[in-house]
């Protein structure tokens, strides 16, 4: 949510900023801007509404080219102030200070009042502009930029990742963070800042991940970091395992399409070194996991969006297979109530980005409530805030996910959760070797099964036009398939803007059946499991009310064919663990093709952002 990139370089920084903005665009795409200090130490600012492409065209059209060795840039997801050029970052105070900001300043109105009294003029409706003025105000009594920023941030309430430059200090960027991610990229040609390493991968693989409250002076050949108490600290330089090519679209039309088709490999990478022969390595969750899982009596899962849906599937598995009580709640609710957290709870956060503000805050809340809980995170991002705050960690290794609608992150989360179910069940003595072997073998089959399922893309594409002119759709499933139905409905609404609801099929008669007519297509997920006969009755109930239906079934399910019903056999002989993962694939493909039919922006759907680092 909002992307920051900046750098001090031996070369012109503008191409670096543009490339970084393009790679960060998944974080926000309603406006973008760049500011550099030109040779004569003056600010040169350019901003535009819309995608980074618009900014690029504006830059190309300019006669006097924007150029400089130091600069900061931003791609915005609006919170305060509509998407407009004057609200786009960078913001400037008195031609002296410029800032880019990711986060929200809650007390900006109070600060603004004081700054207006001091004679500052406001050119935007953002909460960010006050930061620039606050730093400028502080520079009146401070003789260096870093102490002015240190001073200014003391008056901020809220969250921030900040990049600051000043025409009075033309050799440096000040970078600081609290509640929003920020890292520093180190290279021979200069040093850089960014919200996400993928912005800088073409320049460097070496990163310093700033800790909460850190502030850094970034010079061309040196980086100095101070912690929140103002003490100079050394933070380790870490080597990224990501490759620049992983964030390129290759021969695909959309990142979402690429990421759907990458799932077999992503799952192989998630399983790699986490299983040996027929068993799960419990140490995949951390060196202490084996010892600590033995003492666990309950699991509390917290997540948002797609990650929450993965957690819903896991609730079934953890109770059914590992025999441990398990609760799940969305982070935005959990963090604001007063939950009871007993000792011996495994507090599990699931987050692709590892930066979702609500999930992170829920984790902090949980740690405050009870220090004796065991925290475990399942994320796709090494060094994320959630990863660093958790005692135990599991990285899904799905590779960067750029499409805003999550696909491979979801299925790899499910694989991680399947491994966790076994690890917990084994540690508690609730799973025997045969059960473990069966599940592990099922997991090993997944890449092949997904590859086969993906071959049905053409058939699923054919069904997409049925949704084109519809305003609503209903997804039905039972057991874990209810969670998969929720994920299918979420995908459809995210990228095709069709209102979609998912219901546990047994609940149909308690309300949603009233909605059903020929204008509401219904998608049912029908694996050949112990609930199949019940689901078949629900399918009959829907069908007799005249809607168009798609049923994704197991070959063995043998759902009775009826007029205006498409039955799409997906696979056969799936187990409790493999079935929800496999049945996710046709739903991803369906929403993808519906979005193509509707001509929406598949990778950057309106109003959404990939990583929601504000409340
Ligand atoms: C946003 C994204 C979703 C994602 C959710 C949670 O809403 O658009 O795709 O599922 O955040 O993100 P996380 O990174 O915590 O999994």
Care to describe what's here?
By secondary structure, the protein is α/β, with parallel strands linked by helices. The chain has three domains: 3-246, Aminohydrolase, N-terminal nucleophile (Ntn) domain (Glutamine Phosphoribosylpyrophosphate, subunit 1, domain 1); 249-451, Glucose-6-phosphate isomerase like protein, domain 1 (Rossmann fold); 457-598, Rossmann fold (3-Layer(aba) Sandwich), CATH 3.40.50.10490. It contains 19 helices and 27 strands. Residues 304-307, 351-353, 356, 359, 404, 406, 608, 610-612 line the site of 6-O-phosphono-alpha-D-glucopyranose.
At CATH level 2, the architecture of the largest domain is: 4-Layer Sandwich
Our Rg estimate from Cα atoms comes to: 25 Å
Percentage of residues in helical conformation: 25-40%
CATH homology superfamily name of the largest domain? Aminohydrolase, N-terminal nucleophile (Ntn) domain
Strand order of the largest sheet: 3-2-4-1-10-9-11-15
**Domain module tally:** 3
Ligands bound to this protein structure: 6-O-phosphono-alpha-D-glucopyranose
Beta percentage is 15-25%
Count the helices. How many?
19
Number of strands: 27
Derived structural class: alpha/beta
CATH topology of the largest domain: Glutamine Phosphoribosylpyrophosphate, subunit 1, domain 1
Average pLDDT value?
Answer: 93
Low-confidence stretches: none
Distance between the termini: 10 Å
Please tell me what the overall shape is: globular
- The first-level CATH class of the largest domain is given as Alpha Beta
Largest sheet: 8 strands, antiparallel
């Amino acid at each position: 949510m909002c992307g920051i990139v900046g750098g001090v370089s031996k070369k012109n920084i503008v191409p670096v900023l543009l490339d970084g903005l393009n790679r960060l665009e998944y974080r926000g795409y309603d406006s973008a801007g760049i500011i550099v200090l030109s040779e004569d130490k003056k600010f040169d600012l350019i901003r535009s509404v819309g995608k980074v492409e618009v900014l690029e065209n504006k830059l190309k059209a300019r006669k006097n080219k924007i150029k400089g060795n130091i600069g900061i840039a931003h791609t915005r997801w609006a919170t305060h102030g509509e998407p407009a050029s004057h609200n786009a970052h960078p913001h400037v105070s008195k031609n002296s200070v410029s800032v880019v900001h990711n986060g929200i300043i809650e007390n900006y109105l109070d600060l603004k009042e004081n700054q207006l009294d001091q004679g500052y003029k406001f050119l935007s409706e953002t909460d960010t502009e006050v930061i620039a003025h606050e730093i400028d105000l502080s520079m009146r009594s401070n003789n260096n930029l870093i102490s002015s920023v240190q001073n200014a941030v003391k008056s901020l309430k809220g969250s921030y990742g900040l990049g600051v430059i000043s025409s009075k200090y033309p050799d440096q960027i000040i970078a600081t963070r609290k509640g929003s991610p920020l890292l520093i990229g180190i290279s021979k040609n200069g040093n850089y800042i960014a919200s996400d390493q993928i912005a800088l991968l073409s320049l460097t693989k070496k990163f310093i991940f700033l800790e909460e409250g850190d502030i850094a002076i970034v010079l061309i050949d040196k980086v100095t970091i101070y912690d929140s108490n103002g003490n100079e600290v050394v933070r380790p330089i870490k080597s990224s395992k990501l490759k620049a090519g992983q964030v390129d679209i290759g021969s695909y039309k959309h990142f979402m399409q690429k990421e759907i088709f990458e799932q077999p490999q992503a799952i192989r990478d998630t399983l790699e070194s986490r299983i040996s022969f027929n068993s799960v390595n419990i140490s995949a969750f951390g060196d202490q996991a084996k010892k600590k899982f033995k003492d666990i009596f309950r699991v509390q899962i917290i997540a948002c969006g797609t990650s929450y849906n993965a957690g819903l599937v896991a609730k079934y598995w953890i109770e059914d297979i590992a025999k441990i009580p398990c609760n799940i709640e969305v982070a935005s609710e959990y963090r604001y109530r007063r939950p009871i957290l007993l000792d011996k709870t495994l507090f599990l956060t699931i987050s692709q980005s590892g930066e979702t503000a609500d999930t992170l805050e829920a984790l902090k809340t949980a740690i405050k409530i009870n220090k004796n809980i065991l925290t475990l995170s399942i994320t796709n991002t090494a060094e994320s805030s959630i990863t660093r705050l958790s005692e135990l960690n599991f990285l899904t290794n799905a590779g960067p996910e750029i499409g805003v609608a999550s696909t491979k992150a979801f299925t790899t989360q499910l694989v991680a959760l399947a491994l966790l179910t076994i690890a917990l069940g084994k540690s508690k003595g609730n799973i025997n070797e045969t059960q473990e072997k069966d599940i592990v073998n099922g997991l090993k089959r997944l890449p092949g099964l997904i590859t086969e399922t993906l071959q049905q893309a053409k058939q699923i594409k054919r069904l997409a036009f049925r949704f084109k002119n519809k305003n609503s759709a209903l997804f039905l499933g039972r057991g874990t398939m209810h969670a998969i139905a929720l994920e299918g409905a979420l995908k459809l609404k995210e990228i095709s803007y069709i209102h979609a609801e998912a219901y546990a099929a047994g609940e149909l008669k308690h309300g949603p059946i009233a909605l059903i007519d020929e204008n509401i297509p219904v998608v049912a997920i029908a694996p050949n499991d112990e609930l199949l006969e019940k689901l078949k009755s629900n399918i009959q109930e829907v069908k007799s009310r005249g809607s168009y239906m798609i049923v994704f079934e197991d070959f063995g399910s043998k759902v009775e064919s009826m007029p205006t019903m498409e039955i799409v056999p997906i696979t056969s002989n799936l187990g409790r663990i493999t079935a929800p993962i496999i049945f996710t694939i046709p739903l991803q493909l369906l929403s993808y093709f519906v979005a193509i039919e509707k001509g929406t922006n598949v990778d950057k759907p309106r109003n959404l952002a990939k990583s929601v680092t504000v409340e």
